[in-house]
Amino acid sequence: MKSITTCYKLMNVATGREFLDSGWLLDDPVGEKPSLIRAIYEKKQIIPKDDSFGVYKFADWLPGSRFLRGSCAPVTYQSKRLAEYLNLKQLYICFSGYFPEIGANMTTCSFKETEAYSVCSRITSDRERVMVVASAGNTARAFAKVCSENNIPLLLCVPEDNLDALWFDKPLNNCVKLVCAQSGCDYFDAIHLGNIAVKSKKFYPEGGAKNIARRDGMATTMLSATTFIGEIPDYYFQAVGSGTGAIAAWEANLRLIEDGRFSNKKMKLILSQNLPFIPMVNAWNVKSRELLPFDDIEARKQVEEIEAKVLSNRKPPYGIAGGLFDAMTDTEGEFDAIGNTEAHDAATLFEKLENIDIHPAAAVATASLIKAVEKNSIDKSKIIMLNITGGGEKRFEKTHTLHYLKPTHIFEMNPKEEEVIRIVEVMRF
Fold first, then answer.
1. 39 exposure class (CB count in 10 Å sphere: 0-12, 13-18, 19+)
2. What are the beta bridge partners of residue 384?
3. What is the pLDDT of residues 338-372, one digit of tens each?
4. Which residues, including other chains, have CB under 8 Å from residue 332's CB and lie 6 or more apart?
């Protein structure tokens, strides 16, 4: 592992206060209101390294301290067949997944690898406590891979119904452990488990959207697209569960404007969720900074119905300062609601035209693009970035034997805090 020397400060988005990073800050220590913090990098013009550096080719704008082995950067290419089908002049696909023909070799088949490698490179090698990550599936798979290969202790919290997402191309290191929220629970229940676990001094939270390394890792999709195209896109399509990836793209957009070489425009965020679970769509449609009230039991039922299970966050960083509401407002963004059938049809079309399978969430984004074209709500001559956040799983499975991570313990819904802490504290990592 080689060290990285990236100089940056942190900024409280709500107040503009700048301060130094003490190593794992997730908030402004003196902030009086909830706000994301943002990395302000000393290098204002990014100089990508060659592809052998993996995701760290964008290390100028990543807050890590070391290179970890095994990473792969997102790959951007100009679409021909899907673009021709939709009559789009400049459709660029940023692909994160397994698609060896274009140089994409993410073995978890998801862009969550970008955030896992970035976050884990921010961890100092002498940290003794165990990191806790809650996930609906893809994030857990990415963090498990990176932590297993680099001997970083990790506790995963995942809904039992999403266990089929925890597959790997080889058995994992014992430094990775898994606990689950029982069948019928969702991503929010997994987050609740993680929040209890970090009350023990043995553990610390990865931080989710509050972690600058997570957002800036995901921002490499935007950096990949813009440096490939040579210009900031006009439109950005992505499906969202928490919206962290879209926040990251917006933040990267602001840095790229400051860079000065890629135009000064703000791309329009066109985001989508999977019907019937659309809390952010509903809030944005009435321009509410806060999510509208909804019943937890009904929300769990809706999550059971959606095909794209990773789009199921009931507590996203939507209204917080610097969060998705601010990103959408600043870019005059739009939200779309996509049904399972639309997403399935879009996935079929994408595989037929682009020659690779894609994850359900990426299919939701593709369906949103198709819908925008059909409604004539976008300028077909402009630069369009379609963020394919996961794909190639079927291709990967054909040539690899899969190994599944089994949970050490499955907790009932709303478990007692003392029970959770008692069980996780005796785990050996």
1. buried
2. 91, 235
3. 999 999 999 999 999 999 999 999 999 999 999 99
4. 268
Secondary structure (DSSP) of 333-397: -EEEEE-HHHHHHHHHHHHHHHSS-B-HHHHHHHHHHHHHHHTT-S-TTSEEEEEE-BB-HHHHH
E runs forming strands in 256-320: 268-274
Instruction: Map tokens 């406590």 to a residue.
Output: 129
- Architecture of domain 75-109+214-396 in CATH? 3-Layer(aba) Sandwich (3.40)
Q: Which two tokens stand for residue 326?
A: 């601010």
- pTM of structure: 0.95
Return the bridge partners of 157, or none.
134, 179
C-beta neighbour count of 417 within 10 angstroms? 12
The three-state secondary structure class of 140 is helix
Number of alpha carbons in the 13 Å side-chain half-sphere of residue 408 = 18
Per-residue pLDDT tens digits for 230-269:
999 999 999 999 999 999 999 999 999 999 999 999 999 9
Tokens of 373: 């074209």
User: Nearest Cα to 239, choosing from 364, 112, 111?
Assistant: 364
One-letter amino acid of 267: M
DSSP assignment of 49-93, as one string? --GGGGGGGGGGG---SBPPTT----EEEE-SHHHHHHT-SEEEE
Encoding tokens for residue 10?
């942190």
Sign of the alpha-carbon dihedral angle for 100, 106, 107, 109: negative
